[in-house]
Predict the structure.
Amino acid sequence: MNDVTRLSAQGQVLIPKDVRDRLKLAEGEIFDVLTRGEDIVLRRPSKAPRRSVEDVTRSLRAIYQHKGPPIPLEKLSWSPDVDDPSLDN
């Protein structure tokens, strides 16, 4: 069975009580609002905790470690100069 609701002049949508009870929704709960074509989807945000940039960087560094001799910074930031004759074959 589909419930029907109406958009108020203030842009509010009432979620029917039986739906709120079934999903155990509480007052003040936050939702992600998604559009899929002509449809609007209200979804509870992911329960995965947000991670700081530093935390993600630490994780990536642990996974992608360079396993060889140090690489000079000049080599890492080098880009070919199209007018460099040493690049000619």
